[in-house]
Protein backbone atom coordinates (compact mmCIF):
# COMPACT_ATOMS: atom_id res chain seq x y z
CA UNK A 1 0.00 0.00 0.00
CA UNK A 2 1.14 3.54 -0.81
CA UNK A 3 -0.23 6.55 1.09
CA UNK A 4 -0.29 9.94 -0.68
CA UNK A 5 -0.76 12.92 1.66
CA UNK A 6 -1.63 16.42 0.41
CA UNK A 7 -2.09 19.63 2.41
CA UNK A 8 -4.09 22.35 0.69
CA UNK A 9 -4.06 26.13 0.96
CA UNK A 10 -7.26 27.37 -0.68
CA UNK A 11 -7.53 30.97 -1.88
CA UNK A 12 -8.91 33.24 0.84
CA UNK A 13 -11.84 34.36 -1.32
CA UNK A 14 -13.25 30.82 -1.65
CA UNK A 15 -16.36 30.21 0.41
CA UNK A 16 -16.93 27.07 2.46
CA UNK A 17 -19.30 25.58 -0.15
CA UNK A 18 -16.59 25.81 -2.83
CA UNK A 19 -14.03 24.22 -0.54
CA UNK A 20 -16.44 21.43 0.35
CA UNK A 21 -17.15 20.82 -3.35
CA UNK A 22 -13.42 20.59 -4.10
CA UNK A 23 -12.85 18.11 -1.28
CA UNK A 24 -15.88 16.06 -2.35
CA UNK A 25 -14.37 15.87 -5.84
CA UNK A 26 -11.22 14.40 -4.32
CA UNK A 27 -13.29 11.77 -2.48
CA UNK A 28 -15.07 10.92 -5.75
CA UNK A 29 -11.74 9.95 -7.35
CA UNK A 30 -11.98 6.60 -5.55
CA UNK A 31 -14.79 5.57 -7.90
CA UNK A 32 -13.09 7.00 -11.00
CA UNK A 33 -9.48 5.85 -10.79
CA UNK A 34 -8.52 2.21 -10.47
CA UNK A 35 -6.16 1.28 -7.67
CA UNK A 36 -7.41 3.75 -5.06
CA UNK A 37 -8.27 1.92 -1.84
CA UNK A 38 -9.49 4.86 0.24
CA UNK A 39 -9.69 8.65 0.31
CA UNK A 40 -9.97 10.76 3.46
CA UNK A 41 -10.37 14.54 3.64
CA UNK A 42 -10.49 16.95 6.53
CA UNK A 43 -9.74 20.26 8.17
CA UNK A 44 -6.73 21.13 10.25
CA UNK A 45 -8.08 21.37 13.77
CA UNK A 46 -4.81 21.73 15.66
CA UNK A 47 -4.80 24.39 18.39
CA UNK A 48 -1.13 25.13 17.65
CA UNK A 49 -1.87 27.50 14.72
CA UNK A 50 1.11 26.22 12.74
CA UNK A 51 -0.75 25.49 9.49
CA UNK A 52 0.52 28.60 7.62
CA UNK A 53 -2.68 28.68 5.57
CA UNK A 54 -2.77 24.93 4.86
CA UNK A 55 -6.11 24.41 6.57
CA UNK A 56 -7.33 21.34 4.67
CA UNK A 57 -5.82 18.10 3.54
CA UNK A 58 -6.49 14.72 2.07
CA UNK A 59 -4.99 11.26 2.10
CA UNK A 60 -5.25 8.82 -0.80
CA UNK A 61 -4.33 5.16 -0.26
CA UNK A 62 -3.29 3.16 -3.33
CA UNK A 63 -2.87 -0.58 -3.76
CA UNK A 64 0.73 -0.07 -4.90
CA UNK A 65 3.14 2.44 -6.42
CA UNK A 66 1.97 1.55 -9.96
CA UNK A 67 -1.57 2.67 -9.03
CA UNK A 68 -0.17 5.92 -7.61
CA UNK A 69 1.88 6.46 -10.74
CA UNK A 70 -1.23 5.94 -12.92
CA UNK A 71 -3.20 8.41 -10.77
CA UNK A 72 -0.74 11.29 -11.09
CA UNK A 73 -1.26 11.96 -14.85
CA UNK A 74 -4.88 10.72 -14.88
CA UNK A 75 -7.33 13.25 -16.45
CA UNK A 76 -9.67 13.03 -13.42
CA UNK A 77 -6.77 13.95 -11.12
CA UNK A 78 -5.95 16.97 -13.26
CA UNK A 79 -9.46 18.46 -12.86
Automatic annotation (TrEMBL):
Coiled coil: none annotated. This is Stress responsive protein. Signal peptide: none annotated. Gene3D superfamilies: 3.30.70.100. Homodimer. It holds the Pfam family Dabb. PANTHER family: PTHR33178, STRESS-RESPONSE A_B BARREL DOMAIN-CONTAINING PROTEIN. Residues 2-79 form the Stress-response A/B barrel domain. InterPro entries: Dabb, Dimeric_a/b-barrel, HS1/DABB1-like.
